[in-house]
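To assess whether ligand presence alters the predicted conformation, the chain was also submitted together with glyceraldehyde-3-phosphate. Input:
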Amino acid sequence: MAWLVSVRNEVEFSLAASYGVDIVDFKEPRKGALAPVDPQIWQQAARLQSSTSAATDSAAFELSAALGERSDMLQIASSVPPSFAFAKVGPSQCDSPQDLLQLWDDAAQRLPASVELVAVAYADYGNAACLPPEEVFELASQRGMKRCLLDTFTKTGVATLDALGIERLRRLATLARSRGIWWTLAGSIKLSHLEQLLANRIDPHCIGIRGDACDQNRTSSLSSERLKLWSDTMGKRKAIAADDAAS
Ligand SMILES: O=C[C@H](O)COP(=O)(O)O
């Protein structure tokens, strides 16, 4: 299982990268679920990643950009650096399949061809006036998108697990598996949720976090101590998975 950490600037980027995150995700947590950072920060991150890759002969992590909801996305999607692996746009107010497909088309047309558009579903879709996650996953699969992010729109501390419930989340995991979708589970996820997920056969390919990696809450700064705890836990999980695969 990979892990993603949302960062707001170059300082947090370097900190997260030093703890071995798989995906560094740029977003401004003070402004909403998927609010973008200043595109200049994307450019700096792309340069930093390129110098890190040159020094170590490999890219240790991938970069991801949050583009905001529709109106932000239209303004900034074309500024995402081509070296970013992923970008995502929030689906709020897209309450029909046609609206959502149009949103994805508009984003894909603006992004560099090398940047993969990730489909976003909100666990609290009623608050965001958008389609439920099951429909988003199905539509993404039909459109040939390979990745989905499940997150919360309202950042009040209600976790995705609480918004959807374990049983519904398990069915969503089964749906993702059957459609071959690589998905990230986010939305006030805490370290203590990991056991609960595994015990219930909820097996996202990636866990996305912000609040649980911060000093106090998701709008405060990333915490070295929290990142170390996550890094140690994810490292152990990867070692167990590698042993299982080998045996
Ligand atoms: O994409 C990941 C999100 O930034 C998760 O943020 P959160 O853990 O504070 O809900």
